[in-house]
Design goal:
By secondary structure, the protein is mostly beta strands. It contains one helix and 15 strands; from the N terminus they run H-E-E-E-E-E-E-E-E-E-E-E-E-E-E-E. The protein folds into four domains: 34 residues; 71 residues; 66 residues, Sandwich (Immunoglobulin-like); 74 residues, Listeria-Bacteroides repeat domain (Immunoglobulin-like, Sandwich). The radius of gyration is 43 Å and the shape is rod-shaped.
Length: 255
Amino acid sequence: MKNLKLVVFMFLVVLLAGCVPGTGIPNNPDTPNNKTPNITFEPNGGEELEALSGLKVGQTVKLPTPVKEGHMFIGWYDNEELKGNSLPKNYTYKEDVTIYALWLKQQYKIYFSSEEVDLTVLNQTYAFGDELELFTPKSDVYDFAGWYEGEEEFTEKTMPSREVYLTAKWEPKKFSVTLDLNGGTLEAGESTLIENVAGGSTLVLPIPSKENHLFIGWYTSLDDRGMKFLENDVVTSSMTLYAQASAIFLLFRIQ
């Protein structure tokens, strides 16, 4: 009888040793109670994913699709070098494994526009994170004041993860216009120097007077190569304009 009790006692000890502590449930590694990670994810810069545990050998699981800013997910690989074929989306578990994500940088476009000055530049394409080399447009009558995205100046140094629409901001250049009266005179208060003329603007010019002459206009030079400066012409640089007048010949009839 004592021997029977001893055998029963030893059987119970062995049985309990094979159970999950505190539960009395057999410690089967193929049951969901096994918390050892079966599939561990290495996202390579993407979002962190919780490892899959409690899988049975031969069980099929759907691998998650991670997210990484500015990148397209290509697939999961069972080696750190990302060689060979990617793993199927519906993956059959065979043994504990770490799998690695492969990514491809997304490409985005920058679109340029300008209201005051015509641009001939083409839109540019950059991969996410690439260093930006934005061109600086030129104008005879405006100073370039930067690229703007809406109301905010665009100051990014590398390509963001989106399409970008930029508009050039301009400040008019300031010029001076000197008037050469060519022997004529102006009314009191009128000046022969016009300062701070905004580039691209027109001028309202005074009309000088000269004895026995008829004023015919302002010209870009005194010789016949000069062009007449018309009322709808715009200022594109500092310059001197010359008054041109034709002599009036008076005829006297002698009685």
